[in-house]
Each structure stands twice: as structure tokens, then as C-alpha cells.
UniProtKB/TrEMBL annotation:
GO terms for cellular component: dynein complex. Pfam families: Dynein_C. GO terms for molecular function: dynein intermediate chain binding; dynein light intermediate chain binding. The lineage of its organism: Eukaryota, Metazoa, Spiralia, Gnathifera, Rotifera. GO terms for biological process: microtubule-based movement. Residues 3-58 form the Dynein heavy chain C-terminal domain. PANTHER family: DYNEIN HEAVY CHAIN 2, AXONEMAL, DYNEIN HEAVY CHAIN 6, AXONEMAL-LIKE-RELATED. It comes from the Eukaryota. This is Dynein heavy chain C-terminal domain-containing protein.
Length: 61
């Protein structure tokens, strides 16, 4: 995945995060079970966009 070349109009990009005991599946864009003998996996750049809670759409659980 390419890293952004400029700051977003709203929010921020964060990088350098990792997960322990799982992995980020780049094809499905979801967390998945870790591969054998691999304890950590890096996360892609994540866009954090601020929003008011009452303006967020509810997703089905």
C-alpha cells in the first residue's frame, strides 16, 4: 500500500502501529488469525477522522 503524500483535509494519518497475536489481512482489510510463529504484524497507515458521536451512522451488530 502507498503512503499518503500529503496531510488529509480533515483528521490525521497515523503509522507505526502493530498488532500482537493477530495479523492485518491486506486483501480483505480485516484482522485475521496470525501466521504460525509470527507474533506481530504491522498495520497500514490509518486515517483518523474526528466526528461527533450523534452524527455517526449506526452499523448493525
Amino acid at each position: 500500500d502507498k503512503e499518503p503524500s500529503k496531510a488529509p483535509d480533515d483528521g490525521a494519518y497515523i503509522k507505526g502501529l502493530f498488532v500482537e497475536g493477530a495479523r492485518y489481512d491486506r486483501k480483505t482489510r480485516k484482522l485475521a488469525e496470525s501466521q504460525p510463529k509470527i507474533l506481530f504484524d504491522t498495520m497500514p497507515v490509518i486515517w483518523i477522522c474526528p466526528a461527533k458521536r450523534d452524527e455517526l451512522q449506526q452499523s448493525p451488530s
